[in-house]
Amino acid sequence: MSYAEKELIKKLAKNPNIKTAEDAQNAIKSLFGGLIQQMLEAEMEEYLGYSKYDYTNKNTTNSRNGKSKKTVKSDLGLFDLDIPRDREGSFEPQIVKKHQTDYLD
């Protein structure tokens, strides 16, 4: 286990809202969903070639066009994601593919 993982576990253990195993599982579920969401945002940034609000490095006619909601099933249960969209409709996320609702597919 890495140092960062150990520190994250320590922070979670100190959380006063985590009192039961179910609370811990919900916290892990929330972290997992947040991680997948950040990975989707990074995919969009890589795809477009510029960071959000970094218009000085924008070398494309394509741009972000909001997000669509998706509920995905995993070992941790159901969680909601906001899937980024682009204007041209050509962005194909890889971490959670289009039409994928089961994260274990």
From TrEMBL:
Q: Which GO terms describe its biological process?
A: DNA transposition
The alphabetical list of record keywords is: DNA recombination, DNA-binding, Transposable element, Transposition
GTP-binding as a keyword of this entry, yes or no, is no
Q: Which is an annotated GO molecular function term of this record?
A: DNA binding
Q: Which InterPro entries match?
A: Transposase_mutator
Classification via PANTHER family: MUTATOR FAMILY TRANSPOSASE, TRANSPOSASE FOR INSERTION SEQUENCE ELEMENT IS1081
- Listed name of the protein: Mutator family transposase
Source species, please? Clostridium perfringens
